[in-house]
Amino acid sequence: MALKNEGDERLFSREEWIEEQEIQGSPELVFNSPLMNNAQERILEQFTPRHPIALVSWCTTSRPYTKSPKWKTFIKELSGVDFLVASNAGIIPLEYEGAYPYLTYDAHHEREFDELFLIYMTRFFIRFFTLKQYDYVIINSSPNQRQRKRKASLMAGRWLKKRNHIRDFEVCPSPEVYGRAKFNTMFNQMFPDIEATVLGDMKTKIAVYQDLLERD
Q1: Measuring CA to CA, which residue among 171, 3, 21 is closest to residue 103?
Q2: 215: Cβ–Cβ under 8 A, 6 or more apart, which residues?
Q3: Apex CA 131: angle with CA 158 and CA 20, to 5°?
Q4: Which DSSP category does 185 fall into?
Q5: d(CA 51, CA 215)
């Protein structure tokens, strides 16, 4: 079922909205949408980081994102970080989740666009973290997810660190941590990033970075 046009006017006045079908379909359509690209540019113009640590995780089918068990748990259990959503629409600070077009766009998951996804997502990461100053970035990307996501995270993180746009980054959980996780219930299998071992690993990564900042 197609999502209906809705959202607040934080990024676009209602007069600027377009037909739903123009931003729903293949990843190629969403990546090349002038409106979606303009939305990312407006975020880059408006958004100011609140913390020196960013936690990035992938989008969910639930809209707004905070309706999903994953983002609900992250907000409850993790602190001292800026929450950022990575998606076909770009890098979206969680406070923009209700802004048009983020309740409306929809990119179907089609394997034929995996290479295009890798190119665009790596570019989204690099552009965002080149323009927005963070000391540390934690990217939540599980090994069980399609490798395009984890690969884009690693490629962008290494590029940003090498050029001193960030001090350091982590893509977590590692395969070792993921292997220790206990996915005993269907809930944990559906939402592996909030399994106790995986979530605990993210808490540890945040604590390590916070300690480094306190020592400066």
Answers
A1: 3
A2: none
A3: 100
A4: S
A5: 16
Secondary structure of 26-73 as H, E, C letters: CHHHHHCCHHHHHHHHHHHHHCCCCCCEEEEEECCCCCCHHHCHHHHH
List of the chain residues with pLDDT < 70: 1, 144-146, 185-189
The secondary element (H helix, E strand) that includes residue 6 is: none
What's the confidence (pLDDT) of residue 188?
Answer: 67
Domains of the chain (ranges, CATH numbers)? 14-215 (3.40.50.10630)
pLDDT of residue 1: 57
Q: Which residues have C-beta within 8 Å of that of residue 171, sequence separation ≥ 6? A: 139, 141, 150, 153, 154, 157
The strand pairing partners of 90, in sequence order, are 87
Residue of 100, 61, 109, 60 lying closest to 83 (CA atoms) = 60
Give the three-state DSSP class for 182. coil
Q: What is residue 192's predicted lDDT score, i.e. its pLDDT?
A: 86
Tell me the whole-structure pTM to 2 decimals: 0.94
Single-letter code of the amino acid located at 32: N
Whether 197 and 181 have beta carbons less than 8 Å apart is answered as yes
113 contacts 27 by C-beta, under 8 angstroms: yes
Closest to 132 in 3D by CA, of 48, 200, 201: 48
Predicted pLDDT of residue 147: 80
pLDDT of residue 191: 83
